[in-house]
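Researcher: Sequence of VOC family protein follows. Predict its structure.
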Amino acid sequence: MADARVIPILPCASIDEITDFHTALGFEVTYRQTRPNPYVALRRGSVELHYNGIAGFRAEDSYGSCLVAVPDTEPLFEAFAAGLRTKYGRLPLAGFPRITRPRRRKNYGGLSGFSLIDPSGNWIRVVRAEPDVPQDAGSDASAEPESAPATTSRLAAAHANAVVTADSRGDVAQAAKSLSGAVDRPDPTATPADRVEALAFLAELHLRLDDPAQAHARLDELDRLTLSPTDRENAATALAQAAEIRDLTGVATDTDASPAK
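Model: Prediction complete. Tokens:
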């Protein structure tokens, strides 16, 4: 069935709210009706999402989910992030709507993925498409492509597990608990980049849990790390994410807090 198309129909509380949200992310309305039942169809390139309106529907009760496989997750994330920042003045990381960042998923063959959670609580899971990799972000895929990074420390392994727990399964509290334990345990095998990435993600998890005090504490711990220029280069993405988390919590970022020694 090479000519077949599968288009998810997701529940929502308001097709007007959903339309306003998705058009800010670059989607266009291809169909809309209010009677006999509210319904809207949206498209962005080859990605199509349909929604049916349900009076009284609550985002907290949603089990809606779909998978979007793309050649590269980064460009779509950046486009969505730009739209979200324009609409909300920030990148929403908690509540409804929210977005997770592209991160490699050990349960998806080490390939990158992120999730966009819409105002009605539906998970739009964006993953990188790759030949011979199971197209199921919730599976425990064991095949790991050559592009997947090698996990060489206990802390890096705990970080990878926390990404699956929080970003794939949505259990942010458990992810924060397990990663906190790993961060606080000595691990001589962990590289400086491992610690930066784990602490930046842990700070984000605390922010998602509406615990800015703990987020601040973990960011302060990150700032106290001694990082060489090479360490900073290896952890550049995590350092940029940590700076954005500082901005979201209203605490100034000290980009020179960890001089090389």
